[in-house]
Amino acid sequence: MTMQSDLKEDAVDTYETLVEGQEPDQFGIAAAIDKFVKTVGHTVMFANLILIAAIVLQVAMRYILNVNYPMLDELQWHLYGLVTMFGISYALVTDSHVRVDLLHMQMSRRSQRTVEILGMVLLVTPFIYLMIDQGADYFWESYRVNERSASATGLPFRWAFKAIIPLSFIMLALAVAARVLHDLHALWTRGSEEREGRSIFLVIVPFMAAMAVAWALKFTVETTEEMMVIGMFMTFIGLLFTGFPVAWTLAGTGMVFCTAAYLFDNDLMLWTGLESTFTGLDYLTLGAVVNRVYATMSNAVLVALPMFIFMGLMLDESGVAERLMTAMTRLFGTVRGGLAITVTLIGIVLAASTGIVGASVVLLGVLSLPTMMENKYSKSLATGTIAASGTLGILIPPSIMLVIMADQMALSVGDLFMAAMLPGVLLGTLYLLYIFIVAQVSKSSAPVPEGAKRPDWDAVKEVLLAVVPPLGLILAVLGSIFAGICTPTEASGIGAAGATLLALIYRKLTLQKVWNVMKATFNSTAYIFAIFLGATVFSFVLRELGGDEFIEHLISSTGFGANGTIIFILFICFLLGFFLDWIEITLIVLPLMGPVVSGLGLDIPGYGVIDEPALIWFVILVAVTLQTSFLTPPVGFSLFYLKGVCPPSIKLTDIYKGVVPFVLLQLLCLALVFVIPSLATWLPSIAF
Prior knowledge:
mainly alpha, 73% helix, 0% strand
């Protein structure tokens, strides 16, 4: 067990290294700013513990004392707003952001620093100025009228919560200044030492190619607004290849095209040969983004996001996976392919209890890969099984992706959780069948471990003792949602508290582990929320340009029919998954497709009780499709998480070969859900 604990710590360290990236070169005042931002972050992250306590207290008071306090409900989203808004600065100084590394990794460190300086100055700084300036006005107006809660028993001083917006962006401005100072100092003092690698022209080529495509497409559109919509998407894609963080690329692109729209509105772009526009976009119009940011901060549904992340990470720390691995290996030891089957079953359990893909893949890799290699498993089968099993958490509820999808599509989180249950279990079952068949057909790929003993009743008892606690927690979380006892937000808080209790029972809970979980939760929530902010600016400008109507017209004019249109949209999501993370696709693409799907008149069974059966079915189809984004090269995150813990003998090509069959199985699952919509709509219907 000591060895397993060491492996567990290695897994957590590896995951944190992959998430946090590299610390910048330390330099004078910039280092002092970094320390200040981190100190504030380390203080604010304790709000997540208060949030868990507030949720548990709210549920207890409702069912034990039969009372309900709106103050506790409002406190929850106040704490969520505090954590997320101040977390974005912390994420910046620790480099905890999603980026497209395809070309970025090949550039010299000098070129990377140049890209970062240009991005911070040209893309991030205007956005920060907007949020500080308009956010201060937004706060002052609230303070002037002494805005309070709409409930008499709610929290007073609503204006204090709105003050978080300008204050958090002032701290973000400090973090940006620190990053720029670090980079300038390094370029000045270490410029000649950092030239190894490709030059910045490596990313200029794809950017210019994207601009050329946008310019060529101008002959296919009728208005300047449509041309700007195309240009906006192509600029975003081109900037992604620079490796600049996705969140700030989205925000910066929105700012740039708001400026362009203002110039076109005022006849200052006639030299381009394009007609003037009447978008109404200008600085004050864009200031409406502040209100949208406030709505995101105070979104009760999104409060579940840090809670489910905390629950997953704490369960990983509790030692559940090690106990399951030991017990199930003993149970399936004499079955050909038993180790791979064990990994998949543990992946399913972790998916239904954690949903943290990076941590799950790393943990499964550390715990199982050495044993599988020792028993002469095929490298491709071993790595493919681990990578695919670790990604199940993004589909099987409670899934943070489904929480965000529900928010973006104005659907019930509980309905999406129930709708995803059968497709998730189906996908896991397909994995198990594939492994079993491969093990029987190609016996050298998954041999029976030498010296394996036949399972006995003690082995069965050991598995039950290992499985019952996490399954009990899963039942408490999902069962309370499905039965209508708790809202998804309340269930997430109960799950976070339950995972902590489980770690305590297993004697795995230490102050250091609590600190690690809080820090990882803070980081993960922050970089996801940063993408929310960027997507808010991007989508606001896109809609003001008429982008939603243009895209709806573009898709409906393909003439593919209802089913053909759905297949076309899923194909686009599949292709985007090769280059984008699920977060960007969920926040940018999915909301644009909602009105298109609603207007197709699809006859999807709702059994007379589901309000939007077609939309629920479509969202689950997209969710299954986005499973592939974790496994498809060149930027499949699971592939690189796994590569980080693989021995040198396993190459990236082995991992690529291993995931191909599992991607095909994901597409098979997608086809089954498409052909049999009741796989997604039946379970939500009986819950009513």
